[in-house]
Specification:
Layout: H1 17-31, H2 37-44, H3 48-54, E1 68-77, H4 82-92, E2 96-102, E3 109-118, H5 125-133, E4 138-146
Length: 147
């Protein structure tokens, strides 16, 4: 697995201040529907470029992740059985698929967006995503949201 695809759990005191401010700006944007990115970044004291640089790379960790929804997108080769393998992997971790959307493949590559309900019986979601990411034919996996 490539370095930039590893996940870590880090105590709050070890996280650089700019990343904590990105999390706060994201919280403000989610809670204040009318707030702009400019307003949120000004309020927490970071630049918009810092926000955009890190916004997709930091999420708050919730101990009570069970009962939550994870939405992620992946790019995958258009080969028979690959979608089935992705879905089987989610089933093996006892995740419940809520939504699935696959685009029409272009140049042999399709995008797949999945929302997965994390149940009390669901296994390690980070391991599930890592397993999917390592499948032959998967080009890219990115978490879009955790609710």
């Amino acid at each position: 697995m490539a370095e930039d695809n590893q996940y870590y759990v880090v105590r709050n005191k070890a996280v650089p201040e700019v990343l904590l401010k990105v999390v706060e700006a994201k919280r403000l944007l989610a809670s204040e529907r009318a707030m702009t990115v400019q307003e949120a970044t000004e309020q927490v004291g970071i630049s918009r470029s810092s926000f955009y640089k890190y916004k997709d790379d930091i999420f708050p960790f919730h101990d009570n992740a069970r009962g939550k929804t994870i939405t992620f997108v992946l790019q995958m080769d258009d080969v028979p059985g690959l979608l089935s393998t992705v879905l089987k992997t989610i089933a093996e971790y006892n995740g419940n698929i809520l939504t699935i959307h696959q685009t029409i493949p272009i140049n042999g590559v399709a995008s797949l967006t999945l929302s997965v309900d994390v149940l009390p019986t669901t296994g390690d979601t980070s391991a599930m995503l890592e397993t999917i990411e390592k499948l032959q034919g998967i080009h890219y996996l990115k978490i879009l949201a955790r609710e």
